[in-house]
Amino acid sequence: KWHLVSSPVSGAVAGMFTGDYLQTHSEATNVYTDVTLASDPLNIMQGYALWCTSAEATTELFSGITNTKAKSIGFTKSGDGWNLVGNPYPSVLDWDKVTIPGQLSGAIWLFDPTVGANGDYRYYINGGGLSNTTTQYIPSGQGFFVRATGEAGTLTLQNDARVHGGQTFYKASETNQMLLVKATGNGITTQTAIRFIADATQQADRLYDVFKIMSGSPDVPNVYTQIGNEKMAINTLPGVSGNEIVPMYFEAGMDGIYTFDACEIESLDPEVPVFLEDMAANYFQDLRDKPSYSFGYTSGAVKDFRIHFKNVTGIEETETFNVSCYLSNEVLYVNFPEQEMASMAGGAILSLYSLSGQQLMQTKLTQRSNAIPFSASRAVYLVKITTDGRNFSTKVFNH
Fold first, then answer.
1. 324-397 belongs to which CATH class?
2. Is the separation of the CB atoms in 146 and 108 below 8 Å?
3. SS3 readout for the chain
4. Distance separating alpha carbons of residues 197 and 188, to the nearest angstrom
5. What percent of the chain has pLDDT over 90?
6. Residue 123: beta bridge partners?
7. Of the candidate ranges 27-31, 381-385, 393-397, the one whose mean pLDDT is the lowest
8. Contacts of the segment 336-339: beta carbons below 8 A, 24+ positions apart
9. CB-CB contact of 275 with 312 (8 Å)
10. Residue from 304, 339, 305 nearest 321 by CA
């Protein structure tokens, strides 16, 4: 697996990783290049990508004089601004104690190789609270990304940003008004956050917003919002007024059924409505009433959603309704309550999906009782029924 590393000593050379693969990262091109000479120095505060060839847990021993006092490294903005740097100290670094240059985002991105098939990035920004996916504490020997948002500059670390043994890693949780949307699939959960802070703007704020680094793992769900063309993991806005509709997007590398869970709604003003809109399904769901939403997804597509922080016109027609639905002996039975039929003048659309997200059937229903032949293997299927803006979904099992 890949790791991001950095040397906590001076005088270390690439040869200490003999047998593994060590790479440098170019901000200008976003390309990694192999380090081929064992004598190449491991520059202080520079981050490196390391592929460890051993299948077992491995401990690397750095040989040299441990770094202390102030350390600096230049960062550039000739490409997208992603600079791979590292903790230069033999102790934990507290990012909250670092003075952030004006040309640099306040966030950090750490790679976690344990998430999914190929790993994923965790991120932190001061004040992010539960919208963060890691803490401000950067381990010794850890490489991490920072992003230049302005011109080139210099990042300087001081000794007082170090956390020594015996100190407690604790920080009170920040209280933010936010909607936290968690996306779950393939046993993996990721998240995105929409926050409201009065000092923020609708543009990318370097000390409030966190850019999204998309996962390279096909099994990791990616959920994000956007500011312009930038994908955002944390999108901080000045308030609900003027930002009542926030587009949200989903991508993954595997077909399947994925689930959104809306969290931290209680942090918002209780008078603020919160609705999820599935653009393709033309479906609205009140997240205060039903915070969980499952959907089928086919890989390769960008699935569009909208978060509405306002009442949706005609929302009384988008509530779910009751249907009896089951699959038996290769027949799908769908029975509507009698009281529903009066409001179904246009009939209902039934869609049947496999758990991989593939649509297997779509048909129109006009009768109260329906028996639909369906030759199926012994498996679980997802049924969605839509009529006049109302929606019903359930899972059925073919015995």
1. mainly beta
2. yes
3. CEEEECCCEECCEHHHHCCCEEEEECCCCCCEEECCCCCCECCCCECEEEECCCCCCCCCCCCCEECCCCEEEEECCCCCCEEEEECCCCCEEEHHHCCCCCCECCCEEEEECCCCCCCEEEEECCCCHHHCCCCCEECCCEEEEEEECCCCEEEEECHHHEECCCCCCCCCCCCCEEEEEEEEECCEEEEEEEEECCCCCCCCCCCCCEECCCCCCCCCCEEEEEECCEEEEEEEECCCCCCCEEEEEEECCCCEEEEEEEECHHHCCCCCCCEEEECCCCEEEECCCCCEEEEEECCCCCEEEEEECCCCCCHHHCCCCCCEEEEECCEEEEECCHHHHCCCCCCEEEEEEECCCCEEEEEEECCCEEEEECCCCCCEEEEEEEECCEEEEEEEECC
4. 29
5. 69
6. 109
7. 393-397
8. 336/365, 336/368, 336/369, 338/368
9. yes
10. 339
The C-alpha atoms of residue 13 and residue 23 are separated, in whole angstroms, by: 13
Sequence spans of domains, the chain: 2-163, 177-317, 324-397
- Other C-beta atoms within 10 Å of 4: how many? 24
CB 40 within 8 A of CB 13: yes
Residue type (1 letter), 33: T
Residue pointed to by tokens 């047998």: 19
Query: pTM here?
Result: 0.81
Task: Tell me which residue has tokens 């699939």.
Answer: 185
| pLDDT tens-digit readout, 167-206 | 544 454 566 899 999 999 999 999 999 999 999 999 999 9
CA distance 230 to 226: 5
The answer to whether the CB of 104 falls within 8 A of the CB of 155 is: yes
Nearest CA among 63, 62, 50, 57 for reference residue 20: 50
Q: Determine the residue type at 349.
A: I
Q: How many of the other CB atoms lie within 10 Å of CB of 204?
A: 17
Residue 295: CB partners within 8 Å, gap ≥ 6?
257, 258, 259, 260, 278, 281, 303
Q: Are 376 and 395 in contact (CB under 8 A)?
A: no
**Quick one: which of 105, 338, 70, 76 has its CA closest to 207?**
105
Instruction: List the single range of 8-22, 27-41, 264-278, 342-356 with lowest mean pLDDT.
Output: 342-356
Query: Looking up tokens 């793992």, which residue turns up?
Result: 217
